[in-house]
Structure formats: structure tokens, C-alpha cells
Amino acid sequence: MPKIALLPGDGIGPEVAAAAVRLLDAVCDDLTYDEHLAGGAAIDAHGTALTDEALAACQASDAVFLGALGGPKWDTNESGAVRPEQGLFRLRSELGLYANLRPVKPLPALYEASPLKRELIENVDLLVVRELTGGLYYGDRGTADGRAYDTMVYTVAEIERIARTAFRAARSRVTSVDKANVLDTSRLWREVVTRLHSEEFPNIELEHQLVDAAAMRLVAAPRHFEVILTENMFGDILSDEASMLTGSLGMLPSASLGGSVGLFEPVHGTAPDIAGQGIANPLGMILSGALLLRHGLGREDAATAVESAVNRALEQGIRPRDLGGNATTAEMTDAVLEELT
């Protein structure tokens, strides 16, 4: 029986996690769950954002299912303070999750929910492939004597492995995004991606774009993109920007892969302003569950069933609050469940 390490996290995390588990159980009757605290909840209980016990449970599982981590309660600028995000960074590092996949495919039922014109987002189907364990987020940093620094480092091997992930995911074109006109790391990035393309993936078209140009094109002509390959911070920003094509950050799922165990989570945050009210949009978490089924357990039919049920529920007109409707978390979840039958 597949075992899922369940980390509900903070804010709306436990609410959307519970909703998604209902969907997983509806399409698979053999899943078991090993639940642990993470993020701010773990800091309050244990003084650390991820205990050794929780990490061991994740390592021993078939997949990790994460709600959301963080919140203003634990925000601090104090150097060396324990922060909820450290739990996520530790998971990525210890599990070897170097590749973050964020599919962006606006659903026809939500075309009108996007701030972009319908004609711009129709038939958009892109994938952001973000390097997840290098760059600024993992480099040396510090603050002292009125000076702060963050260090961005990438090696050839790190660039090669994430580039291979992007090329293998592509049908015809990869857009590699960097800042090669300014950064040495980006110049190495561009050099390695270009070489790897010519040596291993010559049948896939490769283009390079500077990150500022890519950000503009993502809203001006999103259909141009198929696979966007980029480093950690640029990928973080561009994938959040891309969420607006779908109408809401609450719609975007993600999969973090690379090691023997994958981690699956919605792109949205903890939304502490609505936590506990039962009105959070569960669809990003539910769709992350579909990615768990596909990439974590190899159950393509079950993954497709969940995604189709979400689409059909939205076609019936029901909407969560962030998409202009008034459906509660439970009502939205029930609507998707009804479409599974």
C-alpha cells in the first residue's frame, strides 16, 4: 500500500490538504497517510521547522504531500531566527528535489477569470521547469555592520541535470531564461544549456531569453512558450506571474522531483487572512494531488480522472471566492467529488 507523508502545514494548508485527501481517497482505495507537523506549526511545537522524525517519515514514504508553510506569526528579520520556510528548504535539499515542475494550462471555464484578455490565454499550455536546490536561496548569506549579502552559485552538473529535465519534458521547444548580460552564473547557465542541447537534444528547438524580456512576453504572448527552463529565483517569480493566466494563484499545482521521493504542493501560500474560515480554494492542492498520482505513484488514469473532474465542476459554474464566486472549501470539494462518479 503506497504511503503518503502528509504535511498540512500552516494557515489554509490543513484545510486544503484535507480536501485533497478526500479526492485522493475517492480515486485510490489503497493509500495510507503518515501526518507530521511542518513549518510554523512545527516551530511552535518543536522549535524547528522540520523535525528529524518528520524528515525520516518523508524519506520512507512513496510521496510527500504538502499544504503550505509560513505566516506573519513567524515572520522576522532577525538573523539566525528559525523560519517556516527552512522546513521546505531542508526537504528539497535532503530529498534531492532539484527539479520543480509547474504546469500552467488555463481551463476554458476560467478564461474570463484571468486579468489577461481571452484571446491571449486561449490554448496556453506551458511548463515552468525551475531549478530548486541551487542559486541565491541556498548560497552563503549574512548581515553585519550595515551590509548584507546573498550568494548565487551554480555548477555545471547542477545546470546539466535541470536542463535535461526540461528538454525531456518538451515536445518541440525549450526557452532558457537567464540574465546573461549581467550575471556570471547566467553566462555559465547559457553556455552549459547550449552545449547540452547540441550534444543530446538537437531535435528540440532552444531559445535563450533574458528574464526581464521573458517576464514581459509571458503576459503579452504566453502561447509562445512551451517549456520555460530557469534557475531558482527567476523560476519562483515567473511561475507566480504565470499563475495569473489561470485566473488565480490558488489554481496552480507543482511537483518537485529529482530524488527517490517526490514532493507535491500548491503554488499558493498560507493565506492567513482567511485561514480557519472554510473558504480557501482547494483546487491547487487537489491538482497537486493529481500530479502526485501521476509523477509520484505512476497512476496516470487516476490523475487524469481528478483533473477532468476539476474541469467539469468549474464548467458547471461553481467558483471559489478567489475566482469571483462564493463556494466554500467544502462545497468546492464536493462539486469535484460529484464529477468523479
SSE layout and pairing:
Blueprint: E1 3-9, H1 13-27, E2 32-35, H2 40-46, H3 52-59, E3 63-68, H4 85-95, E4 99-104, H5 118-121, E5 126-131, E6 141-144, E7 147-150, H6 156-169, E8 173-178, H7 184-200, E9 205-210, H8 211-220, E10 227-230, H9 232-242, E11 253-257, E12 262-266, H10 283-296, H11 300-315, H12 329-340
Parallel strand pairs: 1-2, 1-3, 3-12, 5-10, 8-9, 8-10
Antiparallel strand pairs: 4-5, 4-11, 6-7, 11-12
Describe this structure in words.
With 341 residues, the chain is α/β, with parallel strands linked by helices. It folds into two domains: 1-98 and 251-341, Isopropylmalate Dehydrogenase (3-Layer(aba) Sandwich), CATH 3.40.718; 115-245, Isopropylmalate Dehydrogenase (3-Layer(aba) Sandwich). 41% of the residues lie in helices and 18% in strands. It contains twelve helices and twelve strands. The strands form two sheets. The chain has a ten-stranded mixed β-sheet, with helices on both faces. A two-stranded antiparallel ribbon has the order 6-7. A hairpin with a 4-residue loop joins strand 11 and strand 12. Helix 1 (13-27) packs across helix 10 (283-296), helix 1 runs parallel beside helix 12 (329-340) and helix 8 (211-220) packs parallel to helix 9 (232-242). The longest helix has 17 residues, at 184-200. The radius of gyration is 20 Å and the shape is globular. The model has no long low-confidence stretch (mean pLDDT 95).
